Protein backbone atom coordinates (compact mmCIF):
# COMPACT_ATOMS: atom_id res chain seq x y z
CA UNK A 1 0.00 0.00 0.00
CA UNK A 2 1.41 3.41 -0.98
CA UNK A 3 2.14 5.92 1.76
CA UNK A 4 2.88 9.65 1.69
CA UNK A 5 6.47 9.12 2.86
CA UNK A 6 7.48 5.70 1.64
CA UNK A 7 10.55 4.03 3.06
CA UNK A 8 13.53 3.82 0.72
CA UNK A 9 15.17 0.47 0.09
CA UNK A 10 18.84 1.00 -0.68
CA UNK A 11 20.17 -1.96 -2.67
CA UNK A 12 23.92 -2.52 -2.31
CA UNK A 13 25.50 -4.46 -5.15
CA UNK A 14 28.23 -7.02 -4.58
CA UNK A 15 31.49 -7.53 -6.42
CA UNK A 16 31.89 -8.82 -9.99
CA UNK A 17 28.35 -7.90 -11.11
CA UNK A 18 26.57 -4.87 -12.55
CA UNK A 19 24.10 -2.95 -10.38
CA UNK A 20 21.53 -3.77 -13.10
CA UNK A 21 21.09 -7.06 -11.22
CA UNK A 22 18.61 -5.15 -9.01
CA UNK A 23 16.36 -3.88 -11.83
CA UNK A 24 13.59 -6.43 -11.31
CA UNK A 25 13.97 -6.22 -7.53
CA UNK A 26 13.40 -2.47 -7.73
CA UNK A 27 10.18 -2.97 -9.71
CA UNK A 28 8.98 -5.59 -7.22
CA UNK A 29 9.51 -3.41 -4.15
CA UNK A 30 8.22 -0.26 -5.86
CA UNK A 31 5.02 -2.18 -6.55
CA UNK A 32 4.80 -2.73 -2.78
CA UNK A 33 5.00 1.02 -2.10
CA UNK A 34 8.71 1.50 -1.43
CA UNK A 35 11.10 3.91 -3.03
CA UNK A 36 14.23 2.18 -4.29
CA UNK A 37 17.84 3.04 -5.06
CA UNK A 38 20.47 0.73 -6.57
CA UNK A 39 23.48 2.95 -7.28
CA UNK A 40 26.45 1.67 -9.25
CA UNK A 41 29.78 1.44 -7.47
CA UNK A 42 32.24 4.25 -8.23
CA UNK A 43 33.66 3.97 -11.79
CA UNK A 44 31.05 1.32 -12.67
CA UNK A 45 28.12 3.37 -13.95
CA UNK A 46 28.12 1.76 -17.39
CA UNK A 47 26.74 -1.39 -19.04
CA UNK A 48 28.54 -4.63 -18.18
CA UNK A 49 29.87 -5.06 -21.72
CA UNK A 50 31.40 -1.56 -21.64
CA UNK A 51 33.06 -2.24 -18.29
CA UNK A 52 34.48 -5.52 -19.60
CA UNK A 53 35.92 -3.67 -22.60
CA UNK A 54 37.73 -1.32 -20.17
CA UNK A 55 39.44 -4.22 -18.39
CA UNK A 56 42.07 -3.99 -16.99
CA UNK A 57 40.70 -0.73 -15.56
CA UNK A 58 43.10 1.10 -13.21
CA UNK A 59 40.32 3.21 -11.67
CA UNK A 60 38.23 0.23 -10.62
CA UNK A 61 41.42 -1.57 -9.58
CA UNK A 62 42.24 1.24 -7.15
CA UNK A 63 38.96 0.91 -5.19
CA UNK A 64 39.23 -0.01 -1.49
CA UNK A 65 36.53 -1.36 0.79
CA UNK A 66 36.77 1.69 3.06
CA UNK A 67 35.94 3.96 0.10
CA UNK A 68 32.99 1.79 -0.84
CA UNK A 69 31.60 1.78 2.71
CA UNK A 70 31.93 5.57 2.87
CA UNK A 71 30.26 5.90 -0.54
CA UNK A 72 27.15 3.98 0.55
CA UNK A 73 27.22 5.61 3.99
CA UNK A 74 26.95 9.03 2.38
CA UNK A 75 24.05 7.88 0.19
CA UNK A 76 22.21 6.55 3.26
CA UNK A 77 22.89 9.71 5.28
CA UNK A 78 21.53 11.97 2.54
CA UNK A 79 18.15 10.26 2.34
CA UNK A 80 15.22 12.04 4.04
CA UNK A 81 14.86 9.12 6.46
CA UNK A 82 16.86 6.04 7.31
CA UNK A 83 16.54 3.38 4.60
CA UNK A 84 16.18 -0.36 4.68
CA UNK A 85 19.37 -1.90 3.31
CA UNK A 86 19.39 -4.92 1.03
CA UNK A 87 22.88 -6.08 0.10
CA UNK A 88 24.28 -9.03 -1.83
CA UNK A 89 27.70 -10.60 -1.21
CA UNK A 90 30.11 -7.74 -0.37
CA UNK A 91 26.99 -5.57 -0.44
CA UNK A 92 25.68 -7.73 2.40
CA UNK A 93 28.84 -7.05 4.38
CA UNK A 94 28.46 -3.30 3.79
CA UNK A 95 24.80 -3.54 4.87
CA UNK A 96 25.90 -5.15 8.15
CA UNK A 97 28.51 -2.44 8.74
CA UNK A 98 26.08 0.42 8.01
CA UNK A 99 23.45 -1.18 10.24
CA UNK A 100 26.04 -1.22 13.01
CA UNK A 101 26.53 2.52 12.42
CA UNK A 102 22.78 3.02 12.96
CA UNK A 103 22.21 4.27 9.43
CA UNK A 104 19.25 2.00 8.62
CA UNK A 105 15.98 0.82 10.12
CA UNK A 106 16.72 -2.77 9.05
CA UNK A 107 19.10 -4.73 6.84
CA UNK A 108 18.89 -7.85 4.71
CA UNK A 109 22.19 -9.51 3.77
CA UNK A 110 21.82 -11.96 0.88
CA UNK A 111 24.61 -14.55 0.56
CA UNK A 112 26.78 -12.05 2.43
CA UNK A 113 30.53 -11.93 2.63
CA UNK A 114 31.03 -12.26 6.39
CA UNK A 115 32.63 -9.62 8.60
CA UNK A 116 36.23 -9.97 9.74
CA UNK A 117 37.04 -13.09 11.71
CA UNK A 118 34.47 -15.47 10.19
CA UNK A 119 36.14 -17.96 7.92
CA UNK A 120 35.65 -21.33 6.28
CA UNK A 121 38.08 -23.73 4.69
CA UNK A 122 35.41 -25.34 2.56
CA UNK A 123 36.95 -26.21 -0.81
CA UNK A 124 34.32 -24.43 -2.93
CA UNK A 125 34.90 -21.17 -1.03
CA UNK A 126 38.67 -21.38 -1.47
CA UNK A 127 38.39 -22.33 -5.16
CA UNK A 128 35.85 -19.58 -5.96
CA UNK A 129 37.84 -16.93 -4.09
CA UNK A 130 41.39 -17.70 -5.18
CA UNK A 131 41.20 -15.87 -8.54
CA UNK A 132 39.49 -12.73 -7.21
CA UNK A 133 42.06 -12.39 -4.41
CA UNK A 134 44.65 -12.15 -7.17
CA UNK A 135 47.69 -13.25 -5.20
CA UNK A 136 50.93 -13.02 -7.22
CA UNK A 137 49.25 -10.65 -9.70
CA UNK A 138 49.27 -6.86 -9.97
CA UNK A 139 46.66 -5.01 -7.88
CA UNK A 140 46.86 -2.19 -10.42
CA UNK A 141 44.86 -4.34 -12.81
CA UNK A 142 41.27 -5.45 -12.35
CA UNK A 143 40.23 -9.08 -12.08
CA UNK A 144 37.67 -10.33 -14.60
CA UNK A 145 36.27 -13.82 -14.17
CA UNK A 146 36.68 -16.14 -17.12
CA UNK A 147 33.49 -17.90 -18.18
CA UNK A 148 34.53 -21.19 -16.49
CA UNK A 149 35.29 -19.27 -13.27
CA UNK A 150 31.89 -17.58 -13.52
CA UNK A 151 30.19 -20.95 -14.05
CA UNK A 152 31.74 -22.25 -10.84
CA UNK A 153 31.55 -19.19 -8.61
CA UNK A 154 28.18 -17.71 -9.64
CA UNK A 155 25.95 -19.83 -11.85
CA UNK A 156 26.63 -23.44 -10.84
CA UNK A 157 23.62 -25.69 -11.37
CA UNK A 158 22.14 -23.61 -14.20
CA UNK A 159 21.94 -24.66 -17.89
CA UNK A 160 24.94 -23.42 -19.86
CA UNK A 161 22.90 -21.11 -22.10
CA UNK A 162 21.58 -19.35 -18.97
CA UNK A 163 25.09 -19.13 -17.55
CA UNK A 164 26.29 -17.54 -20.79
CA UNK A 165 23.42 -15.02 -20.84
CA UNK A 166 24.08 -14.15 -17.19
CA UNK A 167 27.78 -13.61 -17.90
CA UNK A 168 27.08 -11.30 -20.85
CA UNK A 169 24.53 -9.24 -18.92
CA UNK A 170 26.18 -9.06 -15.51
CA UNK A 171 29.88 -9.97 -15.25
CA UNK A 172 32.23 -7.01 -14.75
CA UNK A 173 35.88 -6.48 -13.73
CA UNK A 174 36.69 -6.06 -10.06
CA UNK A 175 39.22 -4.57 -7.67
CA UNK A 176 41.42 -7.23 -6.07
CA UNK A 177 42.06 -4.83 -3.20
CA UNK A 178 38.37 -4.72 -2.21
CA UNK A 179 38.24 -8.51 -2.08
CA UNK A 180 41.37 -8.61 0.09
CA UNK A 181 40.06 -5.85 2.37
CA UNK A 182 37.12 -8.05 3.42
CA UNK A 183 39.43 -10.02 5.74
CA UNK A 184 40.89 -6.90 7.40
CA UNK A 185 39.69 -4.69 10.27
CA UNK A 186 37.86 -2.50 7.71
CA UNK A 187 35.28 -5.31 7.67
CA UNK A 188 34.97 -5.46 11.47
CA UNK A 189 31.58 -5.68 13.20
CA UNK A 190 30.91 -5.64 16.95
CA UNK A 191 28.68 -8.70 17.23
CA UNK A 192 27.80 -7.98 20.87
CA UNK A 193 26.35 -4.53 20.18
CA UNK A 194 22.60 -3.90 19.91
CA UNK A 195 21.42 -3.42 16.32
CA UNK A 196 18.29 -2.82 14.28
CA UNK A 197 16.65 -5.90 12.69
CA UNK A 198 18.91 -8.02 10.51
CA UNK A 199 18.03 -10.89 8.19
CA UNK A 200 20.75 -13.11 6.77
CA UNK A 201 19.80 -15.20 3.72
CA UNK A 202 21.85 -18.15 2.47
CA UNK A 203 21.71 -20.50 -0.51
CA UNK A 204 22.27 -24.23 -0.26
CA UNK A 205 24.45 -24.56 -3.40
CA UNK A 206 26.38 -21.28 -3.30
CA UNK A 207 30.04 -22.08 -4.00
CA UNK A 208 31.32 -18.55 -3.31
CA UNK A 209 29.57 -17.97 0.02
CA UNK A 210 28.56 -21.37 1.41
CA UNK A 211 25.45 -21.68 3.56
CA UNK A 212 27.62 -22.72 6.51
CA UNK A 213 29.54 -19.43 6.31
CA UNK A 214 26.33 -17.39 6.46
CA UNK A 215 25.15 -19.49 9.41
CA UNK A 216 28.43 -18.79 11.24
CA UNK A 217 27.87 -15.08 10.55
CA UNK A 218 24.34 -15.31 11.98
CA UNK A 219 25.45 -17.18 15.09
CA UNK A 220 28.07 -14.52 15.92
CA UNK A 221 25.41 -11.91 16.73
CA UNK A 222 24.77 -12.23 20.45
CA UNK A 223 22.59 -9.31 21.60
CA UNK A 224 19.44 -11.01 22.83
CA UNK A 225 17.31 -7.86 22.49
CA UNK A 226 18.10 -7.37 18.78
CA UNK A 227 16.21 -9.13 15.98
CA UNK A 228 18.61 -11.36 14.03
CA UNK A 229 17.08 -13.90 11.65
CA UNK A 230 18.46 -16.53 9.29
CA UNK A 231 16.86 -18.21 6.26
CA UNK A 232 18.22 -20.78 3.80
CA UNK A 233 16.74 -21.22 0.33
CA UNK A 234 17.43 -24.54 -1.43
CA UNK A 235 19.22 -24.73 -4.78
CA UNK A 236 20.24 -21.06 -4.80
CA UNK A 237 23.71 -20.22 -6.15
CA UNK A 238 25.63 -16.94 -5.93
CA UNK A 239 23.69 -15.56 -8.91
CA UNK A 240 20.69 -15.68 -6.57
CA UNK A 241 19.39 -12.18 -7.43
CA UNK A 242 18.64 -13.13 -11.04
CA UNK A 243 18.41 -16.89 -10.75
CA UNK A 244 14.97 -18.16 -11.82
CA UNK A 245 12.76 -18.09 -8.74
CA UNK A 246 14.30 -14.94 -7.25
CA UNK A 247 10.74 -13.70 -6.61
CA UNK A 248 10.33 -16.23 -3.79
CA UNK A 249 13.19 -14.56 -1.92
CA UNK A 250 11.87 -11.07 -2.62
CA UNK A 251 8.44 -12.07 -1.26
CA UNK A 252 10.05 -13.56 1.85
CA UNK A 253 12.00 -10.33 2.45
CA UNK A 254 8.89 -8.21 1.95
CA UNK A 255 6.94 -10.32 4.43
CA UNK A 256 9.83 -10.17 6.92
CA UNK A 257 9.92 -6.36 6.66
CA UNK A 258 6.15 -6.14 7.08
CA UNK A 259 6.33 -8.04 10.39
CA UNK A 260 8.90 -5.70 11.91
CA UNK A 261 7.77 -3.22 14.58
CA UNK A 262 6.73 0.13 12.99
CA UNK A 263 7.89 -1.07 9.58
CA UNK A 264 4.60 -1.49 7.78
CA UNK A 265 5.21 1.00 5.00
Automatic annotation (TrEMBL):
InterPro entries: AB_hydrolase_1 (IPR000073), AB_hydrolase_fold (IPR029058). It comes from the Bacteria. Residues 9-244 form the AB hydrolase-1 domain. Keywords: Hydrolase. One of its GO terms (molecular function) is hydrolase activity. This is Alpha/beta hydrolase. It comes from Flavobacterium ginsenosidimutans.
Amino acid sequence: MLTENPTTILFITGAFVSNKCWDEWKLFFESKGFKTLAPAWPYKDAPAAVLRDRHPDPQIASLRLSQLIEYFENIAKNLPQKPILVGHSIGGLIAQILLQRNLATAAIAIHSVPPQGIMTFKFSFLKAGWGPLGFFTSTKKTFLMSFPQWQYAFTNGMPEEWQDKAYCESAIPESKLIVRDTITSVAKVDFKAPHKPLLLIAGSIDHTIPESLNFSNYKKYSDKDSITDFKVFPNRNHFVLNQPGWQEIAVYIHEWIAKLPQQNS
